[in-house]
Amino acid sequence: MGLFSRFRRNSRQDYDRGGEAGYFPLYESQRAYAGDDEFETSPTPRFSPDYDRWDRRLSSLDTDVERERRRRLPWWRPSKYRGRRKRWWAIRIFTAAVLLFVALIAWLAITAPLSKSLEPIAAPQITLLASDGTPIARSGAMVDEPVEVAQLPPHVIKAFLAIEDRRFYSHWGVDPRGIARAVWTGRGGGSTITQQLAKFTFLTPEQTLTRKAREALIAFWLESWLTKDEILERYLSNAYFGDNQYGLRAASMHYFYRKPENLLPQQAAMLAGLLQAPSRYDPTKHYDRAKRRMDLVVGAMVAEGYLTQAEAAALPAPKLDVRTRDDLPTGTYFADWALPIAREGVEASYSRQTFRTTLDSGLQELAGRVTSKAALGNAQVALVAMRPTGEVVAMVGGKDYASSPFNRATQARRQPGSTFKLFVYLAALEAGWEPDDTIPNTPIDKGSYRPKNSRDNYSPTITLEDALATSSNVAAVRLFNEIGSENVIRTARSLGVTSPLPEGDPSLALGTSSMTLLELTSAYAGVAANSFPVRAHAFPKAEDSWWDWLLTPEDNVSSRAHDDLEQMLRAVINRGTGRAATLPIANYGKTGTTQNNRDALFVGYAGDLVVGVWVGNDDNSPLDGVTGGGLPARIWKDFMRGALSLPLPKPSAAPDPEGPIQPFDIEDGATIPLDENGSRISFDDDGITISTEVEGIPLDFRLDDNGLAVEPADSER
User: Fold this and answer.
1) What does each C-alpha distance from 129 to 355, 499, 582 come to in angstroms?
2) Which partner from 113, 463, 631, 688 sits 20 to 30 angstroms from 354, CA to CA?
3) What is the dihedral of CA 435, 441, 445, 446, to 10 degrees?
4) Sequential DSSP letters for 682-695
5) In 3-state terms, the chain is what percent helix, strand and coil (to 5)?
């Protein structure tokens, strides 16, 4: 319709301009011409119909209709392009080729940057050291400095070219003759050295036509921008030679203890033969296979004229000289946690890296010994020991790393149970509550959530200190509701807890929200230092500058609230659920047992150590009578006793354990009377001294690191 509208509009415009008008099939135009007199009296102007122009318009109408129909066709219909001129096709084909070329260059620059071929294809070896310099783990590939073709003997280069790519210096990245030979003989893949460099540098090892096409494309790209020697150097410096050796330099030093510049012909031939199947031909494990493969390489060198038959026959079997054996574990629970952190700051290079960690080799050995001796049955165990600053000094993630490398200290997210009550009571103390304040300890019989106390131990009221010591669930939930979930969550966040904590859920007070043992122990470290949040770290931190200190301020609680909290945590151990963790020095902690005894925990601190212990089953099944105040507390105590070099505990002579003197709650230098005859016991940093009389002779019995000694009593005491 648009076409006819334009036709009528153009005709009317011609008529109005007074020019030669088009033909209008009106009635007046059909009348017979009566002469000039008729138009002299008629208002209609005189004109002559243009029949030729009308014919031309009618003849072009079909063309216009066809053009409009073709324009409306979808782009994928072949009829849309039928009848196009050669020039139209040429312009569009040229434009598409230019755009494709630009896109291809951009894609190669992003996915196959030339600089990447200079980087090792495997992560370089990293060795972790304990804080005292003892190697504890080593992980990563054995890589070494790149080789230079100009520095290598000719027989080394020829050995690799003879077996891997005979026409390397004559093709353009892809060798059609090599491909045809591989198809005809059924042996080999027909890949050139350039294609192999493209494959292990930029692509995955999948065997698909798409990957082969990309491999060929990248090979052309490398050939366009690099010289043949540069391609060969990058290939030899990155190829895998088996036994975790990457690159010719690392392989020659590993198998023959020779630099590649000094390799003998037979040694070079054996190394060249390894590239096809490094694990299958590894000479340290399958020397006979490696020797047969070497003979094949020597035969190829003879066929190419690199060696004469006599020279080949005179080559002896190379003798291995493997001097470096890696006797360090490639992974431990601590190393698996620390290595990814170490690699974050390592740039891609061929150099080996060594990092000193915060791990204490003595404490790590102690942690392994203590947890292995625990009566765990089928249950698993995890232990994290750190300084109040967050330096992790020992880590156990399970009973046996070889059978289960899953780290239950850093990866397992389990419910913390009553150890979470730390945040509830700390939030209450910051809100103005005191340890002697009371709260109802009766059963909760209203609402949808009705927790129960262990063994149905209830009372009309209970102080906050006793509630934490006895781990009263109903008291903790009531206190949680009193101070508000938002305040408890804010306290947990300030102490470094990042795990999800549902707001408004009263069960949160009993530790129903899961987190890792490392996260929980770090929060207790913040309480121990009264400076938080504490971030657990595996590597020593540089001293913060004043600018860092200004940008990352640390938080703390008032000295009153901190002292009150430590008083309550001491009560847990002195007369509460954590009595099994008692030490002869001041120690603080909290037990935790989740519903149906699925998790048992003890987290606490003493001296300069903060330690968290977890016991549970991987399938989350209930433990057989294990609670946080039982096995975890005993593991914690055994570790602390060895870590802090504490003497064995002595039974207290105080008749009233809840009197003014608490058992093992004695300051250094204090003296305690034992009887009415003047016998007394004194404590100091080095040991314990008992002063008494034997048959009227005053004697001192001294127990310290040197053992038990008896000597005359000091008369001045």
Assistant:
1) 6, 31, 33
2) 113
3) -20
4) EE-SSEEEEEEEET
5) 45, 15, 40
Rounded Cα gap, residues 543 and 414, in angstroms: 34
Mean pLDDT by 10 residues, the chain (717 residues): 46 46 47 48 60 74 72 71 72 81 66 57 81 88 88 96 92 75 56 86 62 74 87 92 91 94 96 94 95 96 94 94 77 93 70 87 95 94 97 96 96 97 97 97 91 92 96 97 96 96 96 97 97 94 64 82 97 96 95 95 97 97 94 97 72 35 38 61 69 71 72 55
Cα 130 from Cα 137, distance rounded (Å): 9
| Cα 509 from Cα 528, distance rounded (Å) | 21
What value does the CA radius of gyration of the chain take, rounded to a whole number of Å?
43
CA distance 131 to 539: 9
Q: Is the dihedral of CA 30, 34, 36, 42 positive or negative?
A: negative
The secondary structure of residue 439, as a DSSP letter, is E
Long-range contacts of 221-224 (CB under 8 A, 24+ apart): 221/108, 221/112, 222/112, 222/114, 222/117, 222/173, 222/194, 222/197, 222/198, 223/172, 223/173, 223/194
| Relative orientation angle of helices 631-643 and 361-373, to the nearest 10 degrees | 150
Distance of CA 610 to the CA centre of its chain: 25
